Each structure stands twice: as structure tokens, then as C-alpha cells.
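Hey Z.,

So I finally got round to the NAP thing we talked about over coffee. Here's the setup:
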Amino acid sequence: MTRKLGTQGLSVAGIGLGCMSMSHGYGERGDEAESIATIHRALDLGVTLLDTAEAYGPYTNEELVGRAIRGRRDGVILATKFGIVIGAGSLKMDGSPANAKKSVEGSLRRLNVEVIDLYYLHRRDPAVPIEETVGAMKELVEAGKIRYIGLSEVGPETLRRAHKIHPITAVQSEYSLWERGIEESVLPAMRELGVGLVPFSPLGRGYLTGALQSSAEFVAGDFRRNLPRFNDQHMAANQKLVAIVKQVAGRHGATPAQVALAWILAVAPDAVPIPGTRRRKYLDENLAAVSVRLTDGDMAELGRIASMTEGDRYPPAMAQAVER
Ligand SMILES: NC(=O)c1ccc[n+]([C@@H]2O[C@H](COP(=O)([O-])OP(=O)(O)OC[C@H]3O[C@@H](n4cnc5c(N)ncnc54)[C@H](OP(=O)(O)O)[C@@H]3O)[C@@H](O)[C@H]2O)c1
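And the result:
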């Protein structure tokens, strides 16, 4: 299954691969050999979109992806991001033109490629007009360093202003059965402008797969410990959501992860989710979601999940960086 991202000519396989957890976010780094084998298997199975960011690691996730695609660049649509200040201690953004120009050089070097296919601003910098940031990204397109421009977690106004400076190919935002905050205002603006959607954390950071019961399962350094939705009270309360996903999955002989992905593919024909995994076993399972056909009844049942979800997505400081 191929899907178009945006209206500038970018086409990718309908499910991509999020590479973050191989080096960052969810506790210990993945086993490097298995992570690289996972990327290779993804490419063998027809995945084209690989997602990373300068901030993952920091830097080491881009290096890992760079090593994995060595000799296999053809057919890969490489997406990375800049704009989060590395080592700032708390979430801080730098969307200045100078940082865009400096960051792209680092990403190109670490990924060991001549051009980045899709370059995102990771979070909008409130101190820099979006016109200036995207103006600098446009210059990177003109210089042949990046091919397409993306924005992550922006609101409709930022998107419209940015799109006037240079066509935006994709917005990457959290979107899943339990996180549908973009539907009200961002998604309509994206559709009006012909901007594609790349849903991140489509498995609810693993929760919607049914694999997580309590925060005791998180090893030291797991970022989910900081998220209200992943405290023990909310993790227990939200098991009722997983029960719905499991029930639907049971009817299809599918897994909850497959249902979570099939729901996105069905509800948003312009979306290319990027489930993250560092293991081939989950990769195989997740890619098979394309053959799960949900019925109208399934969609109605699954559609109840978001409004039943307990717990905020982010703590206040991180929530502030997300526009709606
Ligand atoms: N733009 C942004 O601000 C932003 C923010 C977050 C993420 N992202 C991107 O989005 C990608 C995906 O998001 P995510 O990794 O946060 O969340 P996700 O894809 O919703 O879930 C990933 C988690 O689920 C586990 N998992 C994957 N498949 C599974 C399966 N079939 N059964 C059970 N568990 C499974 C993974 O385990 P293992 O890793 O141990 O295999 C990992 O812990 C990231 O890799 C990153 O590229 C972007």
C-alpha cells in the first residue's frame, strides 16, 4: 500500500518505521544488532519512511539509522527533525535560521547522506516567527540539502503561515485511538492545504498494544515515567480502553497493535503512521496491520476510546510546546 504525503510528489509505503526507541525515550537502548536488523527487515518488507531526529539520543539515533542504511539508500525516505535545543535541561526550542543551517549539516553527516528527504521542525520556537524558520528551510531545499519540509505538533495558524512561505509536505503529530486532539482544527487545515499526516506514537507509546500494565514495567530513564497518562492510577483506569481494542482484535484474529494501526489507516486515508519498535517480531506484527479490515461496527466501538481516556498526554511544560 502506497500513500501520498502532501501534494508535492512524495509517496511512501502506508506504514513507516519510527526509530526513536532504538536509542532514546523508552529506557535502555535497544540491542544495536537487532535494531539494525529491524531497519533492514523493514526495508526488505517494503517500508520506505524511516523516522529519526537530531534530539533522539541525542544524535546517536541518526548515527544508527545512518549505519543501517549504508549501501541501501535507494528507496529510503529519510525523515529527521531539528529545533529542540540539545542539553538544555528542559524543553527549549531554537527555530532560528542559523540553527536550521547548522543542524542540517550535522544530520547529513550523522546519517551519512547527501540529502534528507523530509526535514521537520520538531517544535515551533515561540521566539522565532515561523516565516523565518520555514524561510531558512526553503533555502535548504534550494541548496539541495533537503527535499521536503515538515512541521511537528503545529497548530492551524502556524501551518497556514508556514505554507505561504514554502509548501509543507507533512505534519507529524501524535495521533492514535486515544489521542485525537488534532482532529478539530489542525487536520481540517492540513486537508484544505493538501498537507499529509504522519501520526507519531500510533500505538499510544506501547500502551494500546496491551503490553503495559503499570509503571513498574518502566526501566530507569524511561520517559513515560514523566507522562501523566502513564502514572499507575491512569494506567490502571485506561485498561478498559485496551479491553475494547482486544475485543475488536479478537474478532479479526488480529493483535491490538494491528487494530490500533488499522484504525488510523481507515480513519485517515492521508496518514502514514510510524509505529516505533526495536525488534523484528513487533515490526512483522505491525506491518501486517494493512490486511486488517475494520467494519463500521468496529470503527464505532473504537471511536469511543479517545473520550474515555484518562490522564493528560504531557506535563504542563511539554504541553505548552504543542499547538492546537
Ligand atoms: N515528533 C515528535 O515529537 C515525536 C514524539 C514521539 C515519537 N515520535 C516518532 O514516532 C515514532 C513512534 O512513536 P513511539 O515510539 O513514541 O510510540 P509507538 O509507536 O506508539 O509505540 C512504541 C512502543 O511500543 C512498543 N511496540 C511496538 N510494536 C509493538 C507491538 N506490536 N506489541 C507490543 N509493543 C509494541 C515498542 O517497543 P520496542 O521499542 O521495545 O520494540 C515501543 O515501546 C518514534 O519512533 C519517533 O520516530 C515523534
